[in-house]
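We modelled the chain as a single entity of 93 amino acids. Its sequence is:
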Amino acid sequence: MTLKELTDLESLNEFKLTDSEENKALELFDFMADEAKIFQNLNTDGVEVMVHCMPMTNVFRDDVREQAFSRDDLLKGSPERSEDSWVVPRLVK
């Protein structure tokens, strides 16, 4: 990474590093680039591509529509009912 690229990132992200911080950041980016070059030289034939370091499984159950309670069971707790519905007090006259 060059100093111009770093200052462009600063401008884009609306922050400003001091000269000392810029030098440290550039050293860090250079170090990471050197480390990446090491991995490019490794023979990875036969190595499966890994997207996640842990196996991913779907922990959600399938949505299955079911009637958990019967209408009569639900109406048992109503203070007043009319055939198959709760009766509630009228709020607007």
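As a brief sanity check on the tokenised model: The radius of gyration is 32 Å. Residues 19-40 form the longest helix (22 residues).
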